[in-house]
Amino acid sequence: MSGLETAIRNALEKSDRTSPEIRARIYQSARQALDAGLQKQGISDQQVVAAQRQRLELKIREIEMEERARVRPVSAPATPQAAPPAPKPAISPEASVGDASILGGATRDEAFPAMAPAPNVSSLDALRAERPASSGPAAPEEPKARAVRSRGRRRERDAAILDAPPERAAKPRRRRGFLSVLVAWLVFFALVGLAAWWAYSSGLVQQSLQQAMEATERSLSGQRTGSAGPSPQAGFSEEWVEVFDGADAAAVVGGASAVVEPVSTSATPALRLTSGSPGGEGDLGITIPVDVLRELAGKSSTIALTVQSATEVPVQFSVRCDFGSLGTCPRHRFTARQEREDLLLRVTFEGSIAPDAPGKLLLNTALDDPQAALLLHSVRVLPGQ
């Protein structure tokens, strides 16, 4: 309550304190400031509110008694003998009806419980009364008046601390409900499912699986054939049978939409193959001699294709077998890149019937783009043991 008391006294010093009406307005502003401070602090207990109002009323009555004692000697007529100083009236919790009209509000008769801590005042602007305009010229300022004004400024600076808003109590963190957690998980799984569907529909999964299968086939082929397999240093051994060397364009027969063009590279000759259609009219057949097919009968063998993309873009192409009476092999999908590389195809023919006609190794380069082109350098076969 010391903050409100200081604010009331500062307001009285800056106003015409001899006017009962001005003093009543200041007291009423103090009551409003108290109610505002209690509401801002969230104090709703009626006993605490009543106690704070009772304390304020007692302080207002005390200040009003002092103001009346200060005004009475000034307004009393001069007498030859100095009147003894009026004793300070005792503060009583009760007030008369006349005092209530001067204090600017009705009396409070509520019970006086245990005192609660005084609330902070949000602003002192409501306690500042306007000084009435003087009707005559201002009197010269005396030293005592200057001291009073200086003391009032110091009190005003000290009371500025009351302008700070009260700290809000930290609200407990609300726990997330079961429904919100369930919705978050459902959204997460939905996004994961959409990402998986997009990867599968765009061919990214198939391409990754194909590359992994190619790497596995190369590793298994290298382990099974030992030194007979191809390597970047040693190349192909003598056990590999070369059925196409890249120079014989007549060894490749294309369908109605296929195009075969001989090209020359810095290393070896090659054929530029363009299917133009993913169907049978775009297949490109590479002739496999009869004597080579007879070596494949009843064995597991390896076919190596040395290829590269004709452009800077990788080319998806398929390879399948049509070896006549010896049988066929499932279609395999490969990727040819800009660098020249050897792709291995593992085939197994259980039948022991010796073929009597040449077979064909069928390629198609129009899986993703009908105009995709492939450079074929050579085709080799490693018969099984």
Strand and helix map with partners:
Blueprint: H1 2-13, H2 20-40, H3 46-75, H4 97-103, H5 143-159, H6 178-201, H7 204-225, E1 241-244, E2 252-254, E3 259-264, E4 269-274, E5 284-288, H8 290-296, E6 300-309, E7 315-322, E8 328-336, E9 341-348, E10 359-364, E11 373-382
Antiparallel strand pairs: 1-11, 2-5, 3-4, 4-11, 5-10, 6-9, 6-11, 7-8, 7-10
Helix pairs in contact: 1-2, 1-5, 2-3
Structural description of this entry:
This protein has 385 residues and is an alpha+beta fold. It folds into two domains: 2-74 and 94-130 and 146-163, no CATH class; 206-382, Galactose-binding domain-like (Jelly Rolls). 36% of the residues lie in helices and 19% in strands. The strands form two sheets. Strands 1, 3, 4, 6, 9 and 11 form a six-stranded antiparallel β-sheet that branches. A hairpin with a 5-residue loop joins strand 7 (315-322) and strand 8 (328-336). The longest helix has 30 residues, at 46-75. It is rod-shaped, with a radius of gyration of 53 Å. The N and C termini lie far apart (107 Å). 23% of the residues are buried. Mean pLDDT is 75; it is low at 74-83, 86-139, 166-170 and 224-234.
